[in-house]
Amino acid sequence: MARPLRIQYPGAVYHITCRGNDRKNIFRDNLDRKKMLEILVHSLMVYKVKLFSYVLMDNHFHLLIETPLGNLSEFMRQFNITYTGYYNRRHKRIGHLYQGRYKSILVDKGAYLSVLSRYIHLNPVKVKGMLKLPIEERIKKLTRYPWSSLQGYLNGNRRLYFIDYGMVLSEYGGDTEIARKKYKDLLYAELSKAIDIKDKILGQSLIGRSEFIEWVKEKIIDKDKSSEIPAVKKIHCYNSVEGIMGAIEDETGKSLDYMRENKGECRQIAMDLLYRLGGLKGEEIGQIFGVGYTSVSQERRRLAKKKRKDKKLRELIIRIEGLCQ
Fold first, then answer.
1. Angstrom distance (rounded) from CA 108 to CA 91
2. With CB atoms 3.0 to 4.6 Å apart as the test, which of 9, 26, 228, 260 could cross-link to 20 if both were Cys?
3. What is the pLDDT of residue 256?
């Protein structure tokens, strides 16, 4: 597998994931968790890194950060080496603690900051066994989980001094109680559905709108020797709405105007491709068809079920995707 790009520049935002070696736990008790947070805060201060969201799970952690100085590698090296050294000393062990390199996804903060923040915060109730619990029980467990930044997003009185809440909450109007309620409502709504970000990630390294991906390619990757890395070949700009709808019309004879007026497979295909190949969010797709974002999610789920049983439908979608390349 091609090695993921490690793209760095001043002001870059990343979703960071780091897992235990062989999926083993990286925390044995709360003392370990407290020490990791202590080391994290120190590293944030030394390297002038902003932290928007975090969660500590048993065998991995997630961070959503910004590097004003463009120093992700230095920050993560200090952070991970320091915690590994502490962990090995305390538990009288040697060797690697983490499973290879940390994973970093470069983020278009103008479009995906809030989405990834909620994705990170939902981790404690997405583990095995939790999904079978009633929504009310999951909400209770989520809001009481002590090892994430969520509580400060739900209650202004529980803010942590080392978290920058304002940037994420700016999407909802700023660091206010009204904004916190909007964030909470979206988070709770997503308890009953998966936030799927995997099909939005390009080349294992970027997530963002077409203009962001294009800017990164032109200003950062094309001017850097890392462009020789095979993973760059997988990075491409999202297709335009016009290009996707044109491909669908070429294969089916159904126009956008027709799909706005008529439900059915063509409209479901359009919604799915606009999401996967066009990089549009549910709300944006809903505006095109005059429906809410929940309807978009429902239609995409229905299409996914049909695809599993209908070979001709799968072949049709493959042909349309071929026209979009």
1. 39
2. 26
3. 87
